[in-house]
Specification:
This protein is mainly alpha-helical. The chain contains twelve helices and six strands. Helix 2 packs parallel to helix 7 and helix 8 packs across helix 11. The protein is elongated and about 70 Å long.
């Protein structure tokens, strides 16, 4: 379903969400069938390929109601508690206007200007520069920003980031992303479960078949002909089960491809439409660039963020376009100006701190000359007159005359006591 405008984009996201939910059930069934294949190999290591396939299909039919109930339960749990799970992973917490008046007012002004319901506001204590939105309905929508983002960005840039996340909420991208997280989490859980089952299988050299490591010695009485006929079938079935599990995992990653790469570009454009400030969005992206890694966050959670800096096999299907391409689009279509990669003050501070910790080498600095009679008071100790034989002699404490006499004839509170000093 192609999207050519805002409303068709929102409708497309809703349609994709329904397809993804249907895909969740399909992937669960594939995993259940793979698990049934492994279970049949463990129960009977002397069967043929046809026997294992038929027995696993029979097990799948019997397990369909339970698998369906389990998938529905997973969706219900994710619907009501996905934000709690994400907060537990990222460490985000709710904040109020009294706690964060600056951030709260910026978000509230954007919502009022477009008549958007005010989402919940959360802050994650992290030096990373990132933000993300979550929620499946207006009562659940929330925007989480990191404390590092608040320190590094000015008000205009923070407003642009908030506008970016509000656009995700308006376009329905948040629902699609949360559904993808649900699918990736469910498939990852069951895939790991079945892989653990597979690692507990071992080839029984005496019995010529696959069995659990605890019962590998129970089939030692099998005949040599059974070993040849059944061993090959068990090996083939184990390979088929592993391939199915890997296929399900890959499909769960391909689900991210349903999150169109254009959604980030549309969110950037929506932020500019809200704030009327393309330069602020560009400078915010330049500051966030390469500094958005959230410690402990899963790959699925990173897909929710403004920027995902991760690279690797698990992120081959990343849906975030590069910051360079996003900035180029803002310059070309929104009339912004690209300042290029930006360095933060914390970066130079770290360099300075590293330099200060290094031992200094070279000649020592020259010694300051000793204080003389005309040196400043902070560097000279004024001698106290020991005797006042001549009343007409001037007081040495009043030679510099740098302040006017006070009411009692004293020139300041720091005068040294003497016969003509402060009484």
């Amino acid at each position: 379903m192609a999207a050519y405008g805002l409303y068709t984009h929102i409708a497309s996201n809703k349609f994709r969400s329904m397809l993804l939910l249907a895909g969740l059930f399909l992937l669960i069934y594939v995993l259940v069938y793979a698990g049934a294949l492994l279970a049949e190999v463990v129960i009977n290591g002397n069967g043929t390929v046809q026997y294992y396939l038929a027995a696993a299909l029979n097990d799948l039919i019997k397990a369909l109601p339970f698998a369906t109930i389990g998938a529905v339960a997973w969706i219900v749990i994710a619907y009501f508690f996905h934000q709690t799970i994400i907060d537990a992973v990222t460490g985000g917490g709710d904040v109020t206007r009294q706690q964060q008046p600056r951030l709260y007012n910026l978000l509230e002004n954007l919502c009022i200007s477009r008549g958007i319901p005010m989402p919940k506001l959360k802050i994650m204590d992290s030096n990373a520069l990132n933000a993300f939105a979550t929620g499946l309905n207006p009562r659940q929508y929330s925007i989480t920003v990191t404390s590092g983002l608040l320190r590094a960005l000015d008000d205009h840039e923070i407003e642009s980031v908030l506008g970016h996340e509000l656009t995700h909420i308006r376009n329905g991208d948040v629902q699609l992303m949360v559904v993808a997280v649900i699918i990736a989490g469910a498939v990852g859980f069951f895939g790991e479960l079945f892989f653990r089952m597979f690692t507990n299988l071992s080839w029984n050299s005496g019995g010529g078949g696959w069995s659990s490591s605890s019962s590998s010695s129970s089939s030692s009485s099998s005949s040599s002909s059974d070993r040849k006929s059944s061993g090959g079938g068990a090996v083939v079935i184990v390979i088929v089960a592993v391939v199915l599990i890997l296929l399900a995992w890959l499909l769960s990653q391909v689900v991210k491809l349903a999150l169109s790469r254009s959604r980030e570009l549309l969110a950037d454009a929506g932020s500019v439409e809200l704030t009327k400030n393309p330069d602020a969005m560009i400078s915010a992206l330049r500051k966030i660039e390469g500094r958005g890694e959230l410690p402990g966050a899963t790959s699925a959670v990173m897909e929710l963020c403004v920027d995902n800096p991760r690279e690797g096999f698990a992120d081959l299907f990343a849906t975030h376009p590069s910051v360079e391409s996003r900035v180029r689009a803002l310059v070309q279509y929104a009339g912004g100006h690209d300042p290029g990669p930006l360095a933060l003050p914390t970066d130079s501070a770290n360099v300075t701190d590293d330099r200060d910790t290094e031992p200094r080498q070279g000649p020592a600095p020259p010694q300051l000359p000793p204080a003389g009679p005309w040196s400043p008071r902070s560097e000279q100790v004024t001698p106290v007159p020991q005797a006042a034989s001549d009343p007409s002699a001037p007081n040495t404490a009043d030679i510099d005359g740098d302040s006017a006499p006070g009411a009692n004839g004293a020139r300041g509170s720091d005068r040294v006591g003497g016969p003509w000093g402060r009484r």
